[in-house]
Amino acid sequence: MLAALAAAAIHGLDVVATRHPRGCDDEIEFTGLLDAAGSSWLVRSPRSASAGAALEAESALLHRLATVIDRDQLPFDVMRPAGFADLPEGGRAVVSRTLGGTQLDVFALTGGPGLAASLGASLAALHEVEATLAEDVGLPVYEAGECRTRLQAEVDQMAQTSRVPLELLKRWERALEDVRCWRFRPTFVHGDLQAERVLVEGDTVVAITGFTSSYVGDPAVDLAWLLASAPEDAVESILEAYAYGRVEGGSGLLVERAQLLSEVALGRWLMHGLRHNDPVVTAEAEEMLADLAAAVVDAPEIIES
After folding, report:
1. Is pTM beyond 0.90 here?
2. Which of 3, 115, 210, 246 could link 15 by a cystine bridge, Cβ 3.0 to 4.6 Å?
């Protein structure tokens, strides 16, 4: 079905095989394709009205990001929609050429001027993209105070489950209450970065994918996952390259907010398990939260005085 949609979207496309990646979740069904000329494609089909709207918004955003890339203002590529196919139930499937590179192995990152520095520079360039680019396609825009309020609401929901250790809740509350942390200029952010969405060749980031969660808000959101998973020496190189690439550097307690967000991410995993009534995910999240609570007993505050 997806191959047929791709053929309908791209005039003259002769699909000869499906290939990796293939997958399906609550929102999107997708597969890679190979055509008779040896070119690779990716077709994505929404499974709900909300997913269809997200794909449409992402397609408009990617078109604008492509113009920024073509002006050499971003050092990496993005998916570029090449065609659309209307679905009987509404919405459209999106077909794009696949991108080069392999998925980032975040645990293998090392310090120095190599891949870690390229990753930091790429994120800095992304956050220097004009916020109006996102605003023009209708993506959400959150001021610094709104970012704080939204995060506070999430932490309050976590507290209501009685499954998050009290010492963690107090630690997060203290960071949320420190007004110094919430004085920053909102930027364009990816919003859902993870290793599988960063494609690399050698020591260079060549592409970033998955922009369906993008908005204008706290740039710390795109750094939190790296603080949580990358080796310490690599994090230093990422942050150094990031600060060098930002007009205003890496100031404004950016790292502290990223640390807070990396910790709260475990609470989000817990909420995911509870919402989907998944006892395995819930138990895993509770164990990770307990481990974190034990690890920060003698650690400094997220925001030191």
Report:
1. yes
2. 3
Residue 183: how many other CB atoms lie within 10 Å: 11
pLDDT computed for residue 90 by the predictor: 85
**CA distances to 24, 134, 225, 246 from 142, in Å:** 31, 12, 20, 20
Question: What is the rounded CA–CA span in Å between residue 114 and residue 237?
Answer: 9
DSSP, residue by residue, 110-155: -SSSSHHHHHHHHHHHHHTS-HHHHHTTT--B--HHHHHHHHHHHH
Phi, psi of 85 (to 5 degrees): -130, 125
Query: CA angle at residue 214 from 212 to 216, to 5 degrees?
Result: 160
**DSSP calls for 176-215:** HH-GGGG----EEE-SS--GGGEEEETTEEEEE---TT-E
Highest mean pLDDT pick, 13-22, 129-138, 153-162, 293-302: 153-162
